[in-house]
UniProtKB/TrEMBL annotation:
Pfam families hit by this protein: Acetyltransf_1
Species for this entry: Anaerotignum faecicola
GO molecular function: acyltransferase activity, transferring groups other than amino-acyl groups
Source organism superkingdom: Bacteria
Residues of the N-acetyltransferase domain: 1-150
Protein name as annotated: N-acetyltransferase
Keywords of the record: Transferase
Chain segments annotated as coiled-coil in the UniProt record: none
UniProt-listed InterPro entries: Acyl_CoA_acyltransferase (IPR016181), GNAT_dom (IPR000182)
PROSITE patterns the record matches: GNAT
């Protein structure tokens, strides 16, 4: 079901990432492509009728899995397809999961958080700042969602430090 994206298929999948994420949540194309060489990074695609209908990116970090991107092509949204894929991913990876979400400030962001909650992830209210994904950008206020349960402050700090260091190559304290 999940096709590992390689240099050969990267150009097919990147437009889906661009259409699903604002520039503040996506690296420039060549920086995103370079991640394919990172040992703990995986980019996957899911095809329907021969074209990529969904994609997700994960980082296998020590004892947890960080989901960096999860996107479903617009014409496949709101029909249960994304939920089925997320459930399959969660079932396949037998380790705690972490992902970043936007603050619940409007109907769309609350709906997105609700989607993840319906699939077993828990919203954690600790203030979290995502380091810039592109040069010239500032930090982005987000929150972490986790599975199988909410995390305590000590675990939050450990996850934050590892994500910042490994995913964003950021060693400061945000």
């Amino acid at each position: 079901m999940f096709e590992r994206i390689t240099e050969k298929t990267f150009d097919e999948i990147f437009p889906l990432l661009e259409s699903a994420f604002p520039v503040t949540e996506l690296r420039v194309k060549e920086d995103q492509r370079a991640l394919l060489k990172e040992p703990c990074y995986r980019l996957y695609g899911v095809r329907r009728e021969g074209v990529f209908a969904a994609t997700f990116a994960t980082w296998e970090i020590e004892d947890f899995l960080y989901i960096e991107h999860f996107a479903v092509k617009e014409e496949y949204r709101n029909g249960g397809y994304g939920g089925m894929l997320l459930d399959a991913l969660l079932a396949e990876k037998k380790r705690p999961m972490v992902l970043e979400v936007e603050l619940p400030e409007d109907a769309l962001t609350r709906r997105r958080i609700g989607f993840y909650e319906r699939h077993g992830l828990v919203f954690n209210s600790y203030p979290y700042l995502q380091p810039p994904m592109r040069k010239g950008q500032g930090v982005l206020p987000l929150r972490l969602m986790t599975k199988p349960a909410a995390i305590d402050a000590k675990t939050y700090q450990r996850y934050k430090k590892r994500i910042h260091s490994i995913v964003y190559k950021y060693e400061g304290d945000l």
